[in-house]
Specification:
Layout lengths: L8 H12 L3 H14 L4 E7 L5 E6 L6 H7 L26 H7 L2 E7 L5 E7 L2 E8 L4 E7 L6 H4 L5 H18 L4 E6 L2 E6 L4 H9 L1 H4 L2 E8 L2 E8 L11 E5 L2 E2 L3 H10 L12 E6 L5 E2 L10 E2 L2 H15 L31 H4 L28 H8 L15 E4 L3 E6 L2 E6 H18 L5 E11 L2 H16 L3 E4 L4 E8 L7 H13 L6 H14 L9 H12 L14 E5 H7 L4
Parallel strand pairs: 1-7, 11-13
Antiparallel strand pairs: 1-2, 2-6, 3-4, 3-6, 4-5, 7-8, 9-10, 10-13, 11-12, 14-15, 16-17, 17-18, 18-22, 19-21, 20-21
Helix pairs in contact: 1-4, 2-6, 6-7, 9-10, 13-16, 13-17, 14-15, 15-16
Length: 592
């Protein structure tokens, strides 16, 4: 008897707060949602020390009177839902009546509000305890100050990340609201430094303001009206493909949602255009009947449950597929078998090899080494080993051709592979993978002790980044300089690139720097940081499939490849060389 006891109300409130308030960004999310539900079209956010010292949200919404202000901080009190029937048609972002009391139970909170700009009330709560209510200077709308988050729950506070990391989470939270509500003005200041100042505008312009002007110029409009569903928004061209799943945004009835099925619908539309481990950019709004989706699934309200999820999947995939159908490579080539396709980017068949053979059955059987799964494929096991380590554990090295390439017998096939005769038969090299191996080893040496030379740009390039990316970039500048980049700050969230590595084609500086940021953002300590940077640099800087090479360029690439420590595999484990021996060719033609 007596072992079951009722919890103190303060303790119960702190436990409940753990479901809603995970970190400072959670506080920002809940308070901005309240401002939007109140009809605000101007919202200002100010934070200090990543939100741990101060979070202040100011809006011009409908506000509330002093008595409502006190009730707003009572648990399960809400102006948004009043009956169980309304649970099946929730039209507001908030509805549980838990956010304000949860925040107030783990912080020092001061809030003032006025519905008409004539009379205002102010309430002060510390750790869930009411400290006072008094009149405040009149101002239409609401101001909420949250100070010293988790001051009374030190066990929670110690699990917070560095202020810079927490600030990045808040930036991402405001970015989502800005993309979801482009007609609302948002400002964000961190430690008295302005991060965002966004005026009301259309979605395409807002995307450019949030991510950079080059994004606004590389968008594909997505529009599909298929009652009862409507899809609208933008998806990016291939120039916006990234190496991390970060810039993918789906909004459902004005709410940010995280749903793997919806993301996979968009990825499926891009399947023929991008490689595994690459992620397209998209900002998509889905409108559908409220009674066909349940948003009351998780305290964070970011997960939803659909009545007919596969129908939503099909509609979304159809909308994106239609939007990107004119991107090169999306439509299949219906040329007849045996007919040489003289399209742009395709080289003529090597002398003496008929076109029908070039389009006929595969030259190599299933015993030929297949392409290894790249390290950035989420479905592949990550054992932390380098390509050389994995190869030495997997079997003997492939036999190196007996003689070097014959300079007079070298061709480029489909602007993708280098083909040459050697004494023992034929060798075919993937030009991108080969150049990637060369640049990877060069970059590793540069990061360790031998910086790469830089070429000065005749016209320096100004590159703009998102705020969180810009702060990360500043930390990586010393390493980028070792790779041959010469970069300096040039205004708000902007740098100017004055020099490039010798092996990098002009105009690809943004693509390469952005991919390095993507790969290193989830880095671990030690030498793996350099491996990630070198691999990312090599992959993006290397020649691509489709790049035409001269005979001299092909010979130089081959010479550099065989001068590397491991010429047979790229940093991701893909083979660079396929060797077809004379014995195999004789067997194919039934000579033996």
């Amino acid at each position: 008897m007596g072992i079951i006891k009722r919890m103190p109300q303060a303790l119960a409130d702190q436990i409940a707060a753990g479901e809603v308030v995970e970190r400072p960004a959670s506080v920002v999310k809940e308070l901005v949602e309240n401002a939007i539900d109140a009809g605000a079209d101007t919202i200002a956010v100010e934070i200090q020390q990543g939100g741990q010292k101060l979070i202040q949200i100011t809006d011009n919404g409908t506000g509330m009177a002093a008595d409502d202000l006190e009730l707003a901080f009572a648990r399960h009190a809400s102006s948004k839902i009043h009956s169980s029937d309304e649970l099946f048609s929730i039209a507001t972002l908030g509805f549980r009546g838990e956010a304000l009391p949860s925040i107030a139970s783990v912080a020092r909170v001061k809030a003032s509000s006025s519905p008409d700009g004539k009379e205002a009330g102010e309430i002060i709560i510390e750790g869930g305890s009411l400290k006072g209510i008094k009149p405040a200077p009149p101002r239409k709308g609401t101001i909420v100050q949250v100070r010293n988050l988790f001051y009374n729950t030190p066990a929670r506070r110690k699990f917070l990340k560095r202020p810079a990391t927490e600030s990045q989470h808040i930036v991402e939270t405001i970015r989502k609201f800005a993309l979801c509500y482009p007609r609302v003005a948002f400002t964000l200041a961190s430690d008295s430094k302005e991060v965002f100042r966004l005026a009301p505008t259309d979605l395409q312009t807002r995307i450019g303001e949030v991510f950079g002007r080059h994004y606004a110029n590389a968008l594909k409009d997505v529009t599909l009206d298929k009652p009862p569903y409507r899809i609208n928004g933008f998806t990016g061209s291939l120039s916006l493909v990234r190496g991390r799943p970060k810039e993918q945004y789906i909004f459902l009835n004005g709410r940010t949602v995280q749903d793997r099925l919806l993301n996979s619908a968009v990825y499926g539309a891009y399947r023929s255009l991008i490689s595994r481990g690459e992620y397209p950019f998209f900002v998509l709004h889905i409108s559908m009947p409220l009674d066909e989706v349940d948003v009351n699934v998780h305290p964070a309200k970011s997960e939803v449950r659909f009545k007919d999820e596969w129908r939503v999947f099909h509609v979304l995939k159809t909308a994106v597929t239609e939007a990107i159908k004119d991107i090169p490579g999306m439509m299949p080539d219906f040329g007849s078998p045996g007919q040489w396709q003289g399209s742009a980017g395709a080289a003529a068949p090597p002398s003496g090899i008929p076109g029908d053979i070039m389009h006929g059955a595969p030259l190599f059987d299933s015993a030929t080494p297949t392409r290894a799964t790249p390290d950035n494929d989420d479905s592949a096991p990550h054992d932390g080993k380098s390509a050389a380590d994995r190869f030495s554990a997997g079997g003997p090295a492939p036999t190196r051709p007996d003689t070097p390439f014959n300079p007079e017998s070298i061709w480029q096939v489909h602007n993708k592979y280098i083909l040459s005769q050697v004494a023992s038969g034929l060798v075919m090299i993937d030009q991108h993978v080969a150049h990637e191996r060369v640049l990877f080893e060069d970059a590793l040496r540069a990061l360790n002790d031998n910086p790469l030379p830089s070429q000065t740009l005749l016209f320096p390039q100004v590159v703009e980044f998102a705020p969180d990316e810009f702060s990360h970039l500043l930390n990586l500048l010393p390493y980028l300089e070792r790779l041959g980049f010469r970069i300096r700050e040039f205004g708000k969230n902007t740098v100017v690139v004055e020099g490039m590595p010798m092996d990098v084609t002009w105009g690809r500086e943004r693509e390469i720097i952005t991919d390095i940021l993507d790969r290193v953002e989830q880095r671990r300590r030690g030498a793996e940081v350099f491996d990630q940077m070198a691999a990312s640099f090599a992959c993006k800087a290397a020649v691509k499939a489709g790049d035409a090479l001269t005979s001299e360029e092909m010979r130089t690439l081959v010479d550099r490849l065989f001068a590397t420590e491991n010429p047979y595999y790229c940093p991701h484990g893909r083979p660079t060389i396929v060797h077809l021996s004379m014995e195999e060719m004789d067997r194919r033609f039934e000579r033996i």
